[in-house]
Amino acid sequence: MLTERQLLILETIIQDYTDVGRPIGSKALERQLPVHVSSATIRNEMSVLERLGLVNKEHSSSGRVPSLKGYRYYVDNLVKPDATDKQTLESIRTSFGSQFFKSDEILAESAQILSEMTNYTAIAFKPESSDVFLQGFRVMPMGKQRVMVILAMSDGTVESQIFNLPKHINGEELEAMVRVINDQVVGLPIAQVVNKLHESIPLLLHYVHQPRGFLDVFGKILDKAAQDQFFIGGKLNLLNFVENGDIDQIKTLYSLIDRYDDINDLIGNSGENIQVKIGNELTNSSLANYSLISATYDVDQHGKGLIALLGPTNMPYSKMIGLLGTLREELASRLLDYYNLYDE
Amino acid sequence: MLTERQLLILETIIQDYTDVGRPIGSKALERQLPVHVSSATIRNEMSVLERLGLVNKEHSSSGRVPSLKGYRYYVDNLVKPDATDKQTLESIRTSFGSQFFKSDEILAESAQILSEMTNYTAIAFKPESSDVFLQGFRVMPMGKQRVMVILAMSDGTVESQIFNLPKHINGEELEAMVRVINDQVVGLPIAQVVNKLHESIPLLLHYVHQPRGFLDVFGKILDKAAQDQFFIGGKLNLLNFVENGDIDQIKTLYSLIDRYDDINDLIGNSGENIQVKIGNELTNSSLANYSLISATYDVDQHGKGLIALLGPTNMPYSKMIGLLGTLREELASRLLDYYNLYDE
DNA sequence: ACTTAGCACTTGGCCTTGTTGAGTGCTAAG
DNA sequence: CTTAGCACTCAACAAGGCCAAGTGCTAAGT
Question: Out of A34-43, A175-184, A292-301, B22-31, which region has the weakest mean confidence (pLDDT)?
């Protein structure tokens, strides 16, 4: 167990390192600590902290730097979320603006706001789509033998795909088929749509010889919709924390952050309210200098989503955790407004 | 006017610099030139080229490097497009795959192929959209007082927007209004759609008090469609030619290349078949180390488009110009197939 | 038993100095 | 016009010296 003074020293080292980014020595600490003790005493205390693995030296005669374990200890035991001041709250609310027509826009805006306020990179995931349902389904002729299938989801997203019709089918048959499909699937949660359609194959055989082609289209469209579930703000900010001139690292980071699977892996949501992953706790080794704070948000019966902030390991955790806490509430309330408007 | 030998030396300097990226000295040239002359002679010739501004020294006793003027001279007078060999052509064709359903996909694929073959960054612009017309127009109810408007273009793109209905309007009135609008604008080139609708305002007043809201939606959607007219492949390759560790330059480049206006400025199409812009001929100073080769492609009555390649100033111009020439023909032919399929 | 002053030691960063290799311009002879 | 020879230049690199900030340890003070 650490003494009060050791806790204080650890905390001060972390805060100072956050500010200046250079190792902190005993004399510098002597000046900063609220209680006065000599630098020699501080040196003794620091060597205890070092033995515990909470701080490191960069070389044998350098000052101390928080270790990942030190950050972990700090985040688990010492950090207290900063209360978000009124001005910040106000500025979040004005940034959000007044009215949204698509839930995607709300998410994208959240990521944007978060990245602008922090100068880090923000990621916003849509609420689990279990309650997004198929709002409508239209077919539009494109030339003689081709049609465009348009699917609209209840969250305002639209997916479309063109494909060729079998030769024998004519306009009326198509109309009839569309009506059948409409009856079967409109209003269903998107995850169920493809299953339901598979059940209806016997019915569809009246109209098309190979209904699988049709079903593939649905499958493909819905897959795509499921992939498009996150929004990123401040991608460029990632670059601020790359070791100088390491182009390869930049490339790795950029290809990482564009892919849904990788991002998803990265966050590996444990279901906790607010979760902090530090340095090597992130799966990808290019992210050794980064930490990720993620927070779930809750839109009542519409499911849970997640927002996350990716910044340097030495970010000001109290401030960021506080901010993320505020933003998730604002985001949830916007989404709730959105859904309520829609339910009426 | 340059002598044969001077031309040969200039050309060799450029080719060698393309390979190794370091200044070329008289002895190195002595080894490489097809005709044998002593290094002293070469030194004399090089000092002539330097007086003409075609080559530079990096410092008083370094070898020579082609100047931008040198590249310009080379591109204007010496370069001959390499014939694309059969293997390359074959690999372009297989990369294109067999079938596309949206013209956007063809463009995106072109940019992708071009960037992969060159390891540079490729940009593909859609043909001028003058002959893209509004294929269809659908309205889909979303809850009680909101509808989603979906516009499908003849090139397979779809735009959608949700908006609130005025309170007094009911389903039947909406249907009627949709029919009116459909009659007026479906089949028109998108540029004319908004104008035509403005003419129809008196007609629309039967159904809505403020038809402008409706028209804004169209305007906004069509604007968006006009903006989305380019595709980029190999963005990350830009990083390969950044001076080591200049994070700021990276940021500038990245924000440049995401914006339609900037890209458009950059290319500033002169209408020439193939056009090369070198270093400071590009408007943006972050691109001093880059050259841009652009080529128009021609899809007969469907208009002209443009593909471009952004790489380092010391790229192998002959090879790249040859490749771009081939790719533009392949691209044009794909697009032509696409349109013909559609026109049938 | 804890705290502190003092001291010898370590290290990265910065500056200076020397060396080397590739290159240059110039001169004089072929 | 071409070429060999020579004195000179410069970037890149390595080696050495110095400094500031820091450390661990010891011995004395409370």
Answer: A175-184
pLDDT at residue A107 is higher than 90: yes
> DSSP letters along B250-301, please?
HHHHHHHHT-HHHHHHHH---S-SEEEEEGGGSS-GGGTTEEEEEEEEE-GG
The 8-class DSSP code of residue A241 comes to G
Contact A52, A292 (CB under 8 A): no
Name the residue among B143, B158, B342 with its Cβ closest to that of A150: B158
Taking only the tens place, the pLDDT of each residue in A264-282 is 888 876 777 899 999 989 9
Binary contact (A152, B150; C-beta < 8 A): yes
- Two tokens, residue A79: 């950090």
Strand segments, DSSP code E, in A58-133 are 64-66, 121-125
CATH number among 3.30.1330.30, 3.20.20.60, 3.30.450.40, 3.40.50.300, domain B86-126+229-343: 3.30.450.40
Chain A CA closest to residue B159: A158
A236 vs B235, B239, B255: nearest CB: B255
For the residues B105-109, what does the mean pLDDT come to? Answer: 92
Please check whether residue A188 is in contact with residue A194, taking contact to mean a CB–CB distance below 8 angstroms.
no
Domain(s) labelled CATH 3.30.450.40 in chain A stretch across 86-126+229-343
Q: What is the pLDDT of residues B231-263, one digit of tens each?
A: 999 999 998 888 766 788 888 888 888 888 888
| Burial class, B90, CB count within 10 angstroms (exposed 0-12 / middle 13-18 / buried 19+) | exposed
Shortest CA to C1' contact from A36: nucleotide? C3
Specify the DSSP class assigned to residue B155.
T
Among the CATH numbers 3.10.20.310, 1.10.10.10, 1.10.486.10, 3.30.1490.270, which is that of B4-78? 1.10.10.10
Distance of B20 CA from C24 C1′ (whole Å): 21
Residue A141: list chain B partners with CB under 8 A.
Answer: 136
As annotated, the residues of chain B forming the CATH 1.10.10.10 domain(s) are 4-78
Instruction: Tell me how close the Cα of B100 comes to any Cα of chain A, in angstroms.
Output: 9
Angle at A74 between CA A70 and CA A76, to 5 degrees: 115
CA neighbor of B291 nearest in space, from B320, B327, B264: B320
A142/chain B closest Cα distance in angstroms: 7
Q: What distance lies between CA B189 and its chain's CA centroid?
A: 23
Domain B131-227 sits in CATH at 3.30.390.10
The DSSP result for B200-231, as a single string, is: THHHHTTT-S-HHHHHHHHHHHHHHHHH--EE
Q: What CA–CA distance (Å, rounded) separates A138 from A151? A: 7
The amino acid at A59: H
**What is the C-alpha to C-alpha distance for residues B163 and B4, in angstroms, rounded to an integer?**
70
Segment B22-31 shows an average pLDDT of: 94
